[in-house]
Design brief:
The structure holds two protein chains of two kinds. Chain A is of the alpha/beta class. In chain A, a hairpin with a 2-residue loop joins strand 1 (7-8) and strand 2. Chain A has 16 helices and 14 strands. Chain A has helices spanning 18-34, 38-51, 62-68, 87-100, 114-126, 136-141, 143-151, 166-179, 197-205, 207-220, 235-241, 270-273, 311-319, 329-343, 349-361, 383-389, and strands at 7-8, 11-15, 58-60, 72-77, 105-110, 129-135, 155-159, 184-186, 226-231, 251-259, 275-279, 281-286, 322-328, 370-375. In chain A, helix 4 (87-100) runs parallel beside helix 5 (114-126) and helix 4 crosses helix 9. The longest helix of chain A is centred in the N-terminal third of the chain and has 17 residues, at 18-34. A six-stranded mixed β-sheet of chain A has the order 3-4-14-9-10-13, sandwiched between helices. Chain A has a four-stranded antiparallel β-sheet with strand order 1-2-12-11. Chain A has a four-stranded parallel β-sheet with strand order 7-6-5-8, sandwiched between helices. Chain B has a domain at 13-145 and 207-253: TIM Barrel. Chain B has twelve helices and nine strands. A six-stranded parallel β-sheet of chain B has the order 5-4-3-2-1-9. Chain A binds chain B through residues 5, 13-23, 161-162, 167-168, 171, 174-175, 178-181, 275-281, 283, 286, 288, 290-294, and chain B through 49-51, 53-54, 56-57, 60, 67, 72-74, 96-103, 123-129, 147-153, 155, 159, 170, 173-175.
Chain lengths: 396, 258
């Protein structure tokens, strides 16, 4: 899917300062070497299985299926991974790669805090230093994850520039990487940024669809009709889609955060409201004004509160291979509560965006059809803010 | 010969930077005239961007102030049109890829040519991506400026060979901003540039004192100063003109004496 310089159609590329060019070239060379190294592969597999708890379960959501009265619904349980989200898949891969490259320090951006917690975890495990950049607003709405990162030995740097959210955390991490390259690997958390990050992160996350494919074939003897996942930068979505891209019968549906609605300015739905641009090292779709100034986006979900989307998703949108749909805060909160009550599974508010769309789509599908929803993370971290959204003030 | 090459013809060049629209475009216009009168050889005009990832806090904050004041690419074009009536010093725009891309690269660059803008600096467009902008710049007679960093090493020859206008040597790792000391071996970088290009090279990032400017210009063909000037604008606002004029004069004199 990638061609020269990491392009996905017109998207991707390496739009970064010259200071970082040799760092990404070094990373690309190391990755090209280790991706086909059996020793690296077996070390990563044992980390994923023995440490992170893979393979994650593919669970038949029988009550939800009966309640919605349409497609047979399976949940891909990335929420059951160690650290509570899919983020660990990518982080273990990158941390191992960084270690092989002789790096002793990991830096990362985080939105909801899940990628920051995963990076801090891997750093603790592998004896590396760790600094996580997090928007000031996000440190406040995800205080528990800030505590966890510090508990794990990481330094958390609140970012005040811009809107104090995920995009500003990414900018701060890039600035820090420019400042200190020799011993530092930037452990990017999504399928975004300059080449080779979108490819590396996608490959490490593609374990999700590799397993889903095997599991559904074993359980149902056939491929699913639809795969749904939430999309911010798009790492759990690309991981969920990847091994189905060449199966045209499988609908691939990315669920974007519409915030208060795509007809308002308080949205983070990039495919619905953005246009082609160049930012954070890549060409892709971005929410921006007529002069190319990046828009201050909004979503209840800190993990989807990002004004862009990964370049491979932009390309899958262009070619029509994947569909991208907006889901509002209200719909996501309803789905958060629905899945908790119906299946006893509290999803991350990010993942609840995918559940919300599934609730609309499943009844329109036949009972002989199969849908897989990736539950990218668990919702413990969101309980305080969802309670607040419903007018209830929790004190722990 | 391009106007940028001419800026380096008389000797070492002093290149000051300003963020357009900080605190407003009327002040920027006065500042540019004052810098031209105070010995600037080439002026770098920053078009603000919402998320300037190569900038330190000083220029980041200037971008925020300028955008909050309502400055746009079109308003900056209008200001340059007014300035060009009297100011003949070569001028380049410094901005981020998305500002040019979203305007339409050909439309943006053709307007620059009409306005008498001599070149373009895009810090998030490295050698690998320059073909998206460089051919259009050449077509309209603008120089797309290439940057070289302390980490460039074996890339220097490749970059220098294809460079237009002048070569921007980034003095240090990290983002823009004042530094007490520049540790990179600038002389060695400049030697590699000269072995591969006939274009002049100037050093930027971290320079704030006349002593630093003189030292850097002695090792290269000029000194570029941004954050130190933007700091004066942040401090004095609309009253900044005489302070910036005095500062630019002291820095230009030091550079020219190198």
């Amino acid at each position: 899917m990638t061609n020269e310089k990491g392009r996905f159609g017109v998207h991707g590329g390496q739009y970064i300062p010259e200071t970082l060019m040799n760092a990404v070239i070094e990373l690309e060379k190391a990755y090209d070497h280790y991706r086909s190294d059996p020793q690296f592969g077996s070390e990563l597999t044992s980390l994923l299985n023995d440490y992170a708890g893979r393979p994650s379960r593919l669970y038949y959501a029988e009550k939800m299926t009966k309640d919605l009265g349409g497609a047979k619904i399976y949940l891909k349980r990335e929420d059951l991974n160690h650290t509570g989200a899919h983020k660990i898949n990518n982080v273990l891969g990158q941390a191992l790669l960084a270690k092989k490259m002789g790096k002793t320090r990991l830096i990362a951006e985080t939105g909801a805090g899940q990628h920051g917690v995963a990076t801090a975890t891997a750093a603790a495990l592998m004896g590396m230093e760790c600094v996580v950049y997090m928007g000031r607003e996000d440190t406040e709405r995800q205080a528990l994850n800030v505590y966890k990162m510090r508990l794990l030995g990481a330094e958390v740097v609140p970012v005040d520039s811009g809107t104090g959210t995920l995009k500003d955390a990414v900018s701060a991490a890039f600035r820090e990487w420019t400042n200190r390259i020799a011993d530092t690997h930037y452990c990017l958390g999504s399928v975004m940024g300059p080449h080779p990050f979108p490819t590396i992160v996608r490959d490490f996350q593609s374990v999700i669809s590799k397993e889903t494919r095997e599991q559904i074939l074993k359980k149902e003897g056939r491929l699913p009709d639809a795969v749904l996942a939430c999309v911010g930068g798009g790492s759990n979505a690309i991981g969920s889609f990847y091994h189905f891209i060449n199966d045209p019968s499988v609908r691939l549906i990315g669920c974007e955060a519409a915030g208060r609605g795509v007809d308002t300015l308080e949205t983070a739905a990039t495919i619905a409201t953005g246009r082609l641009g160049i930012f954070h090292g890549m060409k892709s779709y971005f929410c921006q004004d007529q002069y190319g100034q990046i828009a201050p986006v909004y979503s209840i979900s800190a993990g989807l509160d990002y004004p862009g989307i990964g370049p491979e998703h932009a390309h899958l949108h262009d070619t029509g291979r994947a569909e991208y749909v907006p889901v509002t805060d209200e719909e996501a909160v309803n789905a958060f509560e629905y899945l908790s009550r119906t299946e006893g599974i509290i999803p991350a508010i990010e993942s609840a965006h995918a559940v919300a769309h599934a609730m609309k789509l499943a009844p329109k599908m036949g009972r002989n059809q199969i849908m897989v929803i990736t539950i990218s993370g668990r919702g413990d971290k969101d309980c305080v803010s969802i309670a607040r959204y419903r007018g209830e003030d929790l004190h722990e | 010969m391009s106007n940028i090459a001419k800026a380096f013809e008389k000797g070492k060049a002093f290149v000051p930077f300003l963020t357009c629209g900080d605190p407003d475009l009327e002040t920027t216009e006065k500042l540019v005239k004052a810098m031209a009168d105070s010995g600037a050889d080439l002026i770098e005009l920053g078009i603000p961007f919402s998320d300037p990832t190569a900038e330190g806090p000083v220029i980041q904050e200037a971008n925020v102030r300028a955008l909050a004041g309502g400055v746009t690419t079109d308003k900056i074009f209008d200001m340059v049109r007014r300035l060009r009536v009297t100011v003949t010093v070569p001028m380049v725009f410094m901005t981020y890829a998305n500002v040019v891309f979203s305007y339409g690269p050909e439309k943006f660059i053709s307007i620059c040519a009409d306005l008498g803008i001599d070149g373009l600096i895009l810090p998030d467009v490295p050698y690998e991506e320059k073909d998206e902008f460089a051919p259009i710049c050449r077509q309209y007679g603008l120089d797309l400026i290439s940057m070289i960093a302390p980490t460039s090493e074996s890339r220097i020859a490749m970059i220098a060979k294809e460079a237009d206008g002048f070569i921007y040597m980034v003095s240090s790792l990290g983002v823009t901003g004042v530094r007490s000391e520049i540790k990179t071996d600038i002389g060695a970088m400049a030697a590699l540039v000269r072995a591969n290009s006939r274009r002049p090279c100037a050093v930027g990032f971290g320079i704030s004192t006349p002593e630093q400017a003189k030292k850097m210009a002695a090792l290269s063909d000029g000194a570029i100063v941004g954050s130190a000037i933007v700091k004066l604008v942040a401090r004095y606002g609309r009253e900044a003109v005489p302070f910036v004029a005095d500062y630019v004069k002291s820095m230009a004199d030091a550079t020219h004496s190198a």
